[in-house]
């Protein structure tokens, strides 16, 4: 057996185990009674330990070196697979056991303290714990950077956005930071001038909302032989490519939230479902990082799902399922409802026009903190100044400021930029799909997502991790990541 | 670290992984869309391989030997745990890889052919495949027997009934075979003389049956913080002790079937839930084999659940949930419905009076086949002769005869006796509980299962696998397994 073949055998088992864990995690969020948490933590921990042992076995390093020597005999998929194996192996083995343990403890302590500091709106309460996390994250980033041959920040970013580089993100975000504030101001002014939007009056029973969600999933091409829709506190897409489990949550006063959750998670699910079947249990067969994934969900939710064409299709379907009637249910009003822009303090409540500003702020701040250019004690002030610059508002307290997101407190650094990279990816892909499929708008107005899904399958999903995120986007759209496409989308939708 | 402590560490991980598999198996039956089967098989296989590697690691044999030398320092739980570790290690390592592989293939081929032979009612069609399975089962049994120091049949039995011995089962079953046929004849005659039983008229919507099932589970003391009720093709109890998942199936024409499934599986679930928490992830903390497990489910379903006292409690509850009215819903009629005796060809449809005869027949035949005293070609004739002797009826074809059960065709030999050992265990435990708890009948009539559950927790569940099945029964009831207790139960209920 060649070294490469032996590596494939080992990674096959690794992914089968990881997939088992995905199902257990889905069950945890969607099915498990509260008293099952401790037992589930034991199960998940045991599988994770076994996975780590599989990949950190000293034989793997030797096999990777020997497989490199066999590289001439590998085809393009195999070569890409081998590169991904090494990348994963570096991430799994770069940190020694002491650092892994210390990070786990520090993140857990910091997250718990954050849960007290946030309601108290007091950053100082959690600053010591966050300082500990930050120090360890910098140490971990440096250890990975030495092995990956990149900067500390890029090494952290690499976990979420393989091959991503801050130096490439920076000019893109700088462009958005320049263009978006005036654009936002114009949109807000225009929407205010148009008068109030009508809100369909509830309540909307959960079972009817669920039936509407299932109908829309069917329209989007979701394959119920290979997936489910359930309920959880936070919507997510989980499971495995041949059995994709998505969830949403219901508010009987507002059906839009649950339905948008369904459409967003269906975008994630369709990406997983469309990954190359021949490479199911290999690194190259997996999705290409967070920004590409978010690109799929935002393409469905923001690009297609809030388009006027889709709302023409959705309006009668929603009325039929929810029993609505009157002018609030007119496609025109629904479109206004679905595209209302409100600058606010909270990222997760933001619309697509203001969302990037939240992300740009976090990207700037986390780079400065990792690089040592910003002291933690100065974070609240820097946050508020950034909000004023980017969104023209200042949070009344740290609760609506630098305490709002769990990410940093839980050790996720280098994650935030993928949200806006994803939004730009979605815009650029949808733009390219529209040019490749001239009747796309009409198809969507008729509830036919077949052409769009086919184009995504062929140009994105089916490539797995064969290309880099950048390479995949270039391959699919014929150009590098270009923020102008995203800005043009916003201008057309909100000022057109 | 002592050898024993190291073994505990290893078995902890093993059980956490097995528990993960239990959840995945539950999901497979209760939640998974059809298209997820292939991926799930990969996940389950990967975990099983890892489990096998954990326990068959050569270091384990050395650790077991070294721990034996430390035995003087172990307490009773630890010593019992060590003995169970060795037993499991023997089962996992007694067969070489070639034999495991050959059995897996042979059983799979035989089961598939059985699925064709059964509807064709043609045993000869599957005889060659079954011959192959039987030969391999005998080889496997012999290999385990050499390690366990027992007979081939007992080695097979040991997998389902640890420490069980055919020589001890034989006189018990011989007694039943003598006593039951005349008893059954009297019961049938008496029930015929009493005139027809009224059947509550449906349909009974699934949601109402489910609500009734949940209400009854609550009455039985099921803890919904640590478990769920769902639906599957075949009812079962799965999950893990802190998160027990039971299922049933619904027939809108007959609510008794689903409800009895719920009560039966609740008995299994309560056993798992009551296992000693301190030993969750060790062999000694697990349930004590199939007959003890079936003893718990049959105690709830057959002893308590079909008692007149429980039906007095159930009748108004069932009427309330299902909207029933009239004489068919009177406790007296429900009791007759719940205890109707009908000798028939099919084991899984049998009542508690005739069920043991089905099992005794299979026990006799499988011992003769394993021992070489019966040729496979003669199985159909031997089956039919046994049915005539034990139940006074002769199957019209092999479909209603030796082709009805999947067990042998799928490689499960030595399993059948546990059903009737379980029925006798249930009767003997319920009899002892009744003597220890003088007001038991009244408590059950009032819907109070607290005393019964408390007695089971203290006398059965909480002991895990610290004692043998026989030892546990003696400890709980003060006597060895005694078929007379079971027979007396039947006489009281059906002829009293």
User: Can you tell me the CATH topology of the largest domain in chain A?
Assistant: Neurolysin, domain 3
**What is the H/E string of chain A?**
HHHHHHHHHEEEHHHHHHHHHHH
Strand content of chain A: under 5%
Q: Biggest interface: chains and residue counts?
A: A-B, 39 and 39 residues
Give the overall shape of chain A, derived from the CA principal axes: globular
Number of helices of chain A: 20
CATH class placement of the largest domain in chain A: Mainly Alpha
Low-confidence stretches of chain A: none
What is the C-alpha radius of gyration of chain A, as a whole number of Å? 23 Å
Give the beta-strand count of chain A. Answer: 3
CATH architecture annotation name of the largest domain in chain A:
Orthogonal Bundle
Q: Strand order within the widest sheet of chain A?
A: 1-3-2
Summed up, the domain count of chain A is 2
Oligomer: homodimer
Terminal CA distance of chain A: 61 Å
> Helical percent range of chain A?
55-70%
Calculate the mean pLDDT score of chain A and round it: 96
Structural class of chain A: mainly alpha
User: Sheet with the most strands of chain A?
Assistant: 3 strands, mixed
């Amino acid at each position: 057996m060649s070294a490469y073949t032996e590596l494939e055998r080992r990674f096959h088992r690794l992914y089968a185990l990881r997939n088992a864990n995905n199902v257990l995690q889905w069950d945890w969020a969607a099915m498990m009674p509260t008293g099952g948490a401790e037992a589930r933590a034991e199960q998940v921990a045991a599988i994770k330990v076994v996975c780590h042992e599989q990949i950190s076995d000293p034989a793997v390093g030797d096999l990777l070196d020997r497989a490199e020597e066999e590289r001439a005999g590998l085809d393009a998929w195999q070569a890409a697979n081998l590169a991904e194996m090494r990348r994963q192996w570096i991430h799994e083995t770069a940190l020694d056991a002491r650092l892994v343990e210390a990070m786990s403890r520090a993140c857990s302590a910091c997250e718990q303290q954050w849960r007290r500091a946030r309601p108290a709106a007091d950053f100082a309460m959690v600053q010591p714990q966050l300082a500990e996390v930050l120090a360890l994250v910098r140490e971990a980033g440096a250890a990975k950077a030495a092995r990956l041959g990149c900067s500390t920040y890029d090494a952290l970013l690499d976990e979420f956005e393989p091959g991503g580089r801050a130096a490439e993100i920076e000019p893109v975000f700088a462009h958005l930071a320049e263009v978006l504030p005036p654009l936002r101001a114009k949109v807000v002014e225009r929407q205010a001038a148009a008068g109030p939007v009508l809100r369909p009056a509830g309540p909307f029973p959960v079972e009817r909302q669920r039936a509407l969600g299932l109908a829309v999933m069917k329209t989007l091409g979701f394959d119920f032989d290979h997936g489910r829709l359930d309920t959880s506190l936070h919507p997510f897409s989980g499971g495995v490519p041949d059995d994709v489990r998505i969830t949403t949550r219901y508010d009987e006063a507002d059906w839009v939230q649950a339905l948008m959750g369904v459409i967003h998670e269906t975008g994630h699910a369709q990406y997983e479902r469309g990954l190359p079947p021949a490479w199911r249990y290999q690194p190259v067969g997996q999705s290409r990082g967070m920004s590409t994934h978010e690109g799929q969900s935002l393409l469905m939710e923001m690009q297609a799902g809030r388009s006027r064409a889709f709302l023409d299709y959705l309006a009668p379907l929603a009325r039929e399922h929810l029993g609505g009637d009157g002018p609030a249910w007119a496609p025109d009003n629904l479109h206004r409802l679905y595209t209302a822009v409100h600058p606010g303090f909270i990222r997760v409540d933001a619309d697509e026009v203001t969302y990037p500003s939240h992300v740009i702020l976090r990207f700037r701040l986390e780079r400065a903190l990792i690089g040592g250019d910003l002291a933690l004690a100065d974070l609240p002030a820097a946050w508020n100044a950034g909000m004023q610059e980017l969104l023209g508002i200042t949070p009344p307290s740290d609760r609506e400021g630098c305490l709002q997101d769990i990410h940093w407190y839980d050790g996720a650094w280098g994650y935030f930029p993928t949200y806006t990279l994803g939004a730009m990816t979605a815009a650029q892909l949808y733009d390219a799909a529209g040019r490749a499929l001239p009747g796309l708008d009409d198809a969507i107005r008729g509830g036919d997502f077949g052409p769009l899904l086919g184009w995504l399958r062929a140009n994105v999903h089916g490539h797995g991790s064969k290309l880099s995120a950048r390479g995949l986007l270039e391959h699919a759209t014929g150009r590098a990541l270009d923020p102008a496409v995203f800005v043009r989308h916003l201008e057309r939708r909100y000022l057109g």
